[in-house]
Amino acid sequence: MSYESRRMKEGPRLVEPSMSEGARRQGELWSQAASDWANLQESTVLPAIRRALDLVQLRRGDRVLDVGCGAGGAMLEASRAGVVIDGIDAAPALVAIAKQRLPSASFHVADMMALPYKDEIFDVVTGFIAFPYAVDPVGALRQARRVAKSTARFALVAWGREEECQGAVHFRALRALLAPAPPGSPAPLAADQRLPHFMQAAGLKVSHDESVSCPWYYPEVAVALRALRSAGPVRRVIEILGDDAVDAALRDSLAPFTNDDGEVRLENRFRVLIATKE
Q: Domain 3-217+268-277, what fold?
């Protein structure tokens, strides 16, 4: 059965979408440099995404939902398994790129806190660097659980431990630029470290947890700046402090990782978690 025939046989699965003001705002920020994100930064986590897709054991005909699909890079990888793909993201510009890259899939602008799908329809739910950054990570994961079948598999990727992620240096630089962190404030990647706890609280059982090397390489500092500036949190700091201040902070943070030829390389380990419903 063709992808289009399968879609018609399944019938409508979408329900009326609901977007919070916070999700709309994030969508605006992530849309500002969507092309740079798609072309320069999205692929930096592909080793972990590929490992997650391998571990979740995609089967031909599986219905897959990618929460926080971005520009669709992860689902391009998944499409090779012959699965039926849906994806949601709050950023209209990223969703537009995803649609161009994978026209046979069904991508929508939507809020992960209110997934626009009926209950129990997906065989696999994925979330790559997505759920820890929801306003309510447990609530977002409960939404993912709601739309998943009782036998569904979940594949998530998050930042690894901060000491293993040189890429996090730009988070620290920008936070210091805004204001010194108060004593006892959480580390930049604290939410990612709590992801297994969030999953358990949402009714998911983690069956596999490992870290995967994802080195970030940029041929020159100017390319690294474009890549890092494309992320929503960085766009927000640019709105507050301006381009020059952000560029200077990013350049300083990248200096220890720039070689004599001007190439930038940051070593990172990202966490891959596979789960099922409790």
A: Rossmann fold (3.40.50)
